[in-house]
Write a structure and sequence with these properties.
Elements: H1 6-26, H2 34-49, E1 55-58, H3 64-71, E2 76-80, H4 83-92, E3 98-100, E4 115-119, H5 130-140, E5 146-152, E6 157-162, E7 168-174, H6 178-188, E8 190-198, E9 206-213
Parallel strand pairs: 1-2, 1-4, 2-3, 4-5
Antiparallel strand pairs: 5-9, 6-7, 8-9
């Protein structure tokens, strides 16, 4: 019999299995991706505008985005559910802090962050867990701090059974429309300032949402 948390266990195990191949695939993911780099530059500017400070990259994988934020002068650290991913992140980026953790039970002090980034990590979270995750984000962020989300756009969910390097996986991919996530954000106490659709003609387009924790 399956339990409500099987998806979490399966996601962790799947990314442990594919960690090395996934890291090889995304190591140069920002090359030739001007919109992704621009989004990170904007995020860095937003963090500096409120005085700077610690920033969390949630679902950081092998740490390439976290490390890029460091090159932009941001005090970023990474959190990922997969110990295999964190091991590679620490190996490849020894000057950056990484730790194992889950966004469903985020162990960060109240209002300790000046920014939070979640790129392609909400896609594995089932609908009923999203409000809990966003409440964790809201709690950890200072008032007025930026939140940037990147996710697959669509309306369907699918089970991914084979991944990077042909390794077996058992992880769900949930594609969502920006308006749906915007509603969740508003209900949690975030102001959504902008959205951006990337590669709209692709089979699997991506969307950005740029938000802030409400100042009150």
């Amino acid at each position: 019999m399956s339990t409500d948390h099987d998806w979490l266990t399966n996601t962790r195990a799947s990314y442990n299995t594919v960690a090395a191949n996934y890291a090889d695939r995304v190591r140069k993911a920002l090359t030739g991706q001007p919109y992704l780099r621009a989004a990170l530059a904007l995020f860095a500017d937003n963090v500096r505008e409120i005085g700077g400070g610690p920033v969390a990259d949630i679902g950081c994988g092998p740490g390439h985005i976290t490390a890029h934020l460091h090159t932009l002068g941001i005090d970023a650290f990474g959190i990922d559910i997969s110990p295999g991913m964190i091991e590679i992140a620490r190996r490849d980026h020894p000057d950056v802090r990484f730790e194992v953790g889950s966004m469903t039970d985020l162990d960060l002090p109240l209002a300790s962050l000046t920014g939070l980034l979640a790129w392609q990590s909400l896609i594995h979270i089932p609908d009923n867990e999203i409000p809990t995750v966003l409440r964790h984000f809201h709690r950890a962020l200072r008032p007025g701090a930026p939140l940037q989300l990147l996710f697959h756009t669509g309306t369907e969910s699918q089970l991914k059974t084979e991944g990077y390097g042909g390794h077996p996986m058992k992880v769900h991919i949930h594609r969502r429309q920006p308006d749906r996530i915007t509603t969740w954000l508003h209900n949690t106490g975030f102001d959504v300032e902008a959205q951006l659709l990337i590669n709209p003609k692709d089979q699997a387009p991506q969307s950005f949402l740029f938000a802030r924790r409400e100042s009150r």
